[in-house]
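Work package 3, deliverable 3.1, input record:
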Amino acid sequence: MAIVALRMLFGDRAKYLGLVFGVAFATLLVTQQGGMFVGLMTRTASVIDDVREADIWVMDPQAQYIDTVRSLRDTDLARVRGVAGVAWAVPFYKASAPVKTLDGHIDNALLLGVDDATLIGLSRKILLGRPQDLHRPDAIAIDEAGYLRLWPGEPLRLGRELELNDRRAVIVAITEASPAFTANIIIHAPYTRAIDYLPQGRDTLSFVLARAAPGRNAADIARAIAARTGLQALSSADFRWKTIDYYLAKTGIPISFGLVIVLGVVVGIAIVGLTFNMFVAENVRQYGALKAMGLSDARLVGLVLLQGAVVGLMGFGIGLGLAACFFEFATQPPGALRGFSLPWWVALGDAGLTALIVLFAMFASLRRVLLLDPAIVFRA
Amino acid sequence: MSVAVECRDVRKSFGTGETQVMALRGVTFAAQAGEMTLLVGPSGCGKTTLISAIAGMLTPDGGHITVFGQDIHALPRGKITAFRARSVGFVFQQFNLLPALTATENASIPLRVIGLPAREANRRAAAVLDRLGLAEHRHRFPDELSGGQQQRVAIARALVHEPRLIVCDEPTASLDAASGHAAMALLRELAVRPDRAVIVVTHDERIFSFADRIAHMADGHIEAIAAQEAHAA
């Protein structure tokens, strides 16, 4: 009987396409917004994610997330290094800096100062140039997307100059950095040069990056650092979630995205529900005939569920495909949406949500079929 | 000749209070196997209610209906559905063919309902369609068939699973005189068998001649039953 149900569904092409459109629209909206939300939240912690060498971040006790930078004293670095179980600790500088190209393009960059000696904190993926060239005078590394933002459409080229807070900077390396939440250009420079670009006062140390000794747990060592220094120390994973939690709790971002997602679900249920109800209403004599001919309620419900499942799968496939196309094409660097992606688990969650949309939407139709009086076929 | 369908004091009402309508007021009636019985009467006299109850689609408020010895309304609901699937064939006034299915697929539905694989169901349905003169139209969709041809597909659908009871509701109402006559002739020729009863609800006096027995209904009960010598064409 499955083929009968499918032929009934495909036979009413307008409704079938309307149903698929409804599910696809809801899926696209929910998936796209879900992916964007996850991408945005990931961006808030991208600086933490990019520093792979360190597994402990040490900061001011009042820091709530990565963008609340309150400088530490320079001596704090040595105090962290003195905690048992710390393999190494290096300074890390983070600030926002105005950037200007020689042809007058002005923008804002995230300036990250990495350890002079080890360059820990520098993006691991260098697309062009050599990390050691950062030791040359005025040398900086810029991320590819930032480069293309400053010089759109131009090939990547080392040796280009720009002004960083009105001081000369020379690009010696082009990196691939994760997009940041607060800036579209990410510049890395050795720590001492970075603080020279943005002289702020006596204390300049934004964070201390540290690594737990082999065999030691980062969270345990972080607690030891906090106890010993009075500073706030968190494992990278904890700091990442602390940052994301801050944005979730203290900004309107989740509400904004959540509303759109809820809207997508509601619109999906409305479109699919109304269309499916119309489909069932117009085919009610056919369902009635099948019931009269001895098709049980359970099998009839099975047929309707099959019709809903096909519509759901088709619509979900199309909606997911469109969302995937969006993330594939709209997020290419140097666009503002670069780095946004569609994690598999978001797609999986959307599949569950789509199933719920279809089930909710079909509820009234299923009820109508279940309560259908087969004697309807005898009425003119 | 044996009694195929027996109704004893069957009662059915719809609604309550002042709006209550007594559709069946103690119908007592029998249809014989091997015969075509016509239920005739004015609109609203309870004909459709009676065949709905006989076919197990409507539960009477009182009385008993036995079909080939089985008190169908004593059966649990699931068994009534199964009974209908195996033992009852339907011909509807508006054919009720599924527009997205071909003639063969439409005719095969009762076999699919009782669980036959699609291929075998289609093979048997095609054979019945051939007997009904629709061999060339097997793969056509209902909207590609004339009214008469659609009714023949509906008859094939009613016969394909070899039911013991065939219930027809105004089978000629949507057809012109010639098509209606041809449909009844086919029904008479193919459906009436010694082990099967055919009950036809109709207003159409032109087809009375096909009946072995005519039951006249009025105001929710059987007024008269008359046997006659049927002549098919």
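Chain B touches chain A through 34 residues (CB under 8 Å).
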